[in-house]
Amino acid sequence: MMERVNRVALIGTGSVGSSYAFALLNQGVADELVLIDLHKDKAEGDAMDLNHGLAFAPANKKIWFGSYEDCELADIVVITAGANQKPGETRLDLLEKNTAIFKTIVESVMRSGFDGIFIVATNPVDILTYMTWEFSGLPVNKVIGSGTILDTARLRFQLSEYFNVDTRNVHAYIMGEHGDSELPVWSHANVGGRSVFDRIQDHPDKYDITDLDTIFEQVRDAAYHIIERKGATHYGIAMGLVRLTKAVLHNENAVLTISGYVNGSYGVDDLYIGVPAIVNRKGVTEIIQLDLNEEEKGKFTESASILKTTMEPVLKKYLNKDPQAGKK
Ligand SMILES: NC(=O)C1=CN([C@@H]2O[C@H](COP(=O)(O)OP(=O)(O)OC[C@H]3O[C@@H](n4cnc5c(N)ncnc54)[C@H](O)[C@@H]3O)[C@@H](O)[C@H]2O)C=CC1
Ligand SMILES: CC(=O)C(=O)O
Questions:
Q1: N or C, where is the chain less crowded by C-beta within 10 Å?
Q2: Catalytic site positions
Q3: For a substitution probing ligand 1, which of 18, 42, 80, 256 has the most ligand atoms within 8 Å of its CB?
Q4: Could you tell me the CATH number of the domain that includes residue 60?
């Protein structure tokens, strides 16, 4: 019996989108990839360019420049379209213009008859994931934001440099807003199974607990540092999005820090926010409830409250909804 081919539709082939398409092709993850962008020439040019790499790709794939009708048969629609931060701008500053863009995009995707999984990366990602869920009418498990997947990868990298251990043996999460109010979950961070606190105590000559603050600042502010230098960040998030795509298409039950719908856990209601979650072919099947310490709980609640307050104007304007109303 022939296995059904899987299809990813990518909306937005700018820096993040085209890097994602390139990484997806190189890792041989999707059978079909359709590229869609308001700037049609860019999407068409990318499709042509990527097709010229097929001879060197791990498997034969189909890539084309398409339209919203192609989303009907897509397993996943990845959205990386919209404005990015200019130097000095925060992610939250992008809310108004990107919500307007998302309304058009998500409604166009849904008109095609799409019934797959949305993966959202555009900023502010937590709020735009919420808006995608509302605009689409799909169940919460089928709408996923990249959340703190990139921040978690940045934290693992910084810790791996500090402790001189392979990044893949460092386990630590960033939770909360993908943005300035995010938090490191030190209480569950470990290197090769040994907690970061124990590891620091094991080598007091080399390590100091106060260095963790500097490590976190580097993670939280990484996007600003990169944007100052080259105008955008795209490779890290592109690889994070491929990781998420693979978790869905390969039904992995992978634990990733994504922007998931939280309604009751972590003391938060009716919000998309960065949390560890189990991801498989159905999307997000479980938000993992960690035992955060008091300081972490406080920071998570504060981050959630910042997101709620920030999203108030778009909830009112587009959905006539009061974000403080709580549980649905
Ligand atoms: N979640 C994360 O961790 C990260 C998120 N981002 C975000 O990703 C988004 C994209 O960033 P870049 O790729 O650097 O921007 P970019 O400006 O290079 O690309 C944006 C693309 O969106 C397209 N677009 C705009 N309106 C559209 C519409 N209505 N329909 C279809 N396509 C449309 C543009 O033509 C352009 O090709 C930004 O919001 C950025 O902040 C960036 C890095 C990391
Ligand atoms: C731009 C952005 O969201 C990031 O690199 O984290």
A1: N
A2: 178
A3: 80
A4: 3.40.50.720
